[in-house]
Design goal:
Layout lengths: L1 H7 L1 H4 L12 E3 L5 E7 L13 H4 L15 H9 L4 H4 L1 E6 L6 E3 L17 E4 L1 H6 L9 E4 L3 E5 L8 E6 L7 H4 L4 H24 L2 H7 L13 E6 L8 E6 L4 H8 L9 E3 H13 L14 H12 L3 H19 L7 E6 L5 H15 L32
Antiparallel strand pairs: 1-2, 2-12, 3-4, 3-5, 6-7, 7-8, 8-10, 9-10, 9-11
Helix pairs in contact: 8-11
């Protein structure tokens, strides 16, 4: 009822109605404000479950690690193990959003979930991705694929109808920075395996499901290689300090495309496209000493980017611009967000933040693949666990 009431108060949200061509889901109006289509109409986007088979994908709980991710017990668990260095693996340094509660990278100033301004103060949160790798009972997953050293999950944030993460489970690698502390051939193998694992899940569980693809991708028949629809890369610093690859099928959801237009996604200097990371590591395989320094806990990604550019003329800013420009072009070409399927236009500049977030969250529940098929209450069912979970001490730190 509250959402229906909000839709009636067009003065809060609408500037000039829907644009003539709004299939991209978000745009700037004549005043320069970012707007997006919000309030999915009933039946416009009926749920299309990508075929995650319960028998194949639902692996059951990994026993032996009782854990409350909201409490201090993660540190207690690590300390009780007696494994040196384990407790350091179990925490993230973040800025926590006061509006939606999401932990964000400590370098961000706006939440990359809801767009709200972040506090200046840092905080520490449990490293949920390490908890996943260690098999903690209380951290349920929407699991797509698993191997001994990598797993693929649906991302809870759900920037698009298919938003995957691959999490590395072979060593403790907090971020992409630590990849450059490894022998380049081994680091490159890690990155490629993470990409291949996501591509496998995408092809077998989404691309192979034509109803899903036609529902969310306009003119999908014209796409020769479905992998060309994907935005993928690493964020550094991350919000979860275990190496994970963002793998996002475009188009983004309307609200998330609005956030992209506002500069809150794929941030320059933090988002490292997969293409850039592989190019840098491939060059280092040929010249392993070209960095000219040993990567340690104080090394910044800026220093690595600068040295890779100097040694190999691999230009991070150019690759970042080419990739993010491609993402916007794909949104325009393949966005399937017909404004007629939404109740309203939301003007991010004039609407109240909490109300915008309520609309975005309600639409995400309809459009996301996370936790599908939903349970009997119509809520996401993220009840999987990583069945190849590691024992304390098995996840060796690279530094």
């Amino acid at each position: 009822l509250k959402l229906q009431f909000l839709y009636l108060i067009d003065s809060l949200f609408v500037w000039g109605g829907f644009p003539a061509d709004s299939m991209s889901g978000a745009w700037r109006n004549e005043a320069g404000d970012v707007c997006f289509s919000g309030g999915v109409k009933a039946g416009a986007y009926d749920a299309v479950d990508a075929p995650l088979a319960k028998k194949a994908g639902r692996v059951g709980k990994a026993e032996g690690h009782p854990f409350n991710p909201k409490g201090p017990t993660v540190g207690d668990w690590a300390a009780a193990s007696g494994v040196e260095g384990l407790e350091a693996q179990m925490w993230n340094k973040v800025r926590k959003c006061g509006q939606c509660g999401k932990p964000n990278a400590f370098t961000l100033t706006a939440c990359n979930s809801c767009g709200a301004a972040l506090p200046e103060a840092y905080s520490h949160t449990p490293n949920l991705f390490c908890c996943i790798v260690y098999g903690f009972d209380a951290v349920g997953l929407s699991l797509r694929h698993q191997e001994d050293d990598v797993l693929v999950i649906d991302d809870l944030l759900s920037l698009s109808a298919c938003h995957l993460n691959s999490i590395w489970a072979g060593q403790h690698i907090p971020s992409v920075v630590q990849l450059f502390a490894m022998p380049p051939d081994k680091a490159l193998a890690v990155v490629r395996k993470m990409g291949d694992a996501c591509a496998h899940a995408f092809r077998t569980q989404f691309v192979a499901h034509p109803t899903f693809m036609k529902k969310y991708v306009k003119n999908v028949e014209a796409v020769k290689d479905p992998l060309s629809l994907v935005a993928m890369g690493f964020n550094t610093p991350p919000s979860q300090y275990q190496l994970h690859l963002q793998y996002i099928m475009l188009p983004l959801l309307p609200f998330q495309h609005a956030q992209q237009l506002l500069g809150n996604h794929f941030t320059e200097g933090r988002f490292l496209p997969f293409r850039y990371v592989t190019a840098a590591l491939e060059a280092l395989v040929k010249e392993p000493d070209a960095l000219g320094f040993a990567v340690d806990g104080d090394t910044t990604i800026d220093r690595i980017i600068e040295r890779v550019h100097g040694a190999f003329a691999i230009d991070y800013s150019l690759i970042w611009k080419e990739e993010t420009t491609r993402y916007v072009a794909l949104q325009e070409a393949h966005g399937n967000w017909d404004a007629a399927n939404f109740e309203t236009t939301v003007n991010v500049a004039t609407a109240q933040g909490q109300e915008v977030q309520e609309i975005a969250n309600a639409d995400k529940l309809v459009l996301q693949s996370y936790g599908r098929p939903y349970n009997q209450e119509g809520k996401p069912d993220a009840s999987n666990h990583y069945s190849l979970a590691k024992a304390p001490g098995e996840l060796k730190a690279v530094l």
